[in-house]
Write a structure and sequence with these properties.
The chain is mainly β and about 140 residues long. It has 1 helix and 10 strands. It has one helix at about 130; strands at about 5-10, 15-20, 25-30, 40-45, 65-75, 75-80, 85-95, 100, 105-110, 115-120.
Length: about 140
């Protein structure tokens, strides 16, 4: 799908994906409608107007945390694990790139001084003890 690099477990379940910084023109969806975290990219020329809107209240249920990170500057390595905590892949992320984590586990190593990252995940946040298990 698009410029997406996928990480799947042995059963073929999508665990995570990386979006490069070479975004397609216009509006480009990367996520499936069923994902808790919805990810789309915008790539428009100056002067493009997007219709004003509000979002309606729609009941949603999340059973686990899904998250995305966007690297603003620097570089890091993401380690991707399946649901059994087995490493299934590693990938480098640089400025302008995004990684989406749907299932399994993950870890990071910051490779450059001054690496800046924005993390986005579904909420509400129940606190570290209820939200994650370190391994």
């Amino acid at each position: 799908m698009n410029n997406r690099i996928e990480f799947r477990d042995k059963r073929g379940t999508l665990i995570a994906y990386k979006i490069g910084n070479d975004l397609h023109e216009g509006l480009c969806p990367y996520s499936d409608d069923s994902d808790f975290v919805q990810v789309l990219s915008w790539n428009y020329q100056g002067g493009k107007k997007l219709n004003r809107h509000t979002h309606l209240q729609v009941p949603r249920s999340a059973t686990h945390t899904q998250e995305a990170i966007v690297v603003l500057s620097g570089q890091l390595r993401a380690d991707v694990f399946d649901g059994k905590r087995q490493l299934i892949g590693q990938i480098l992320l640089g400025a302008g790139e995004c990684m989406v984590f749907l299932q399994g586990g993950h870890g990071f190593e910051i490779l450059d001084d001054g690496t800046r990252v924005v993390e986005i995940k579904n909420g509400p946040y129940p606190g570290a003890e209820k939200d994650r298990k370190r391994f």
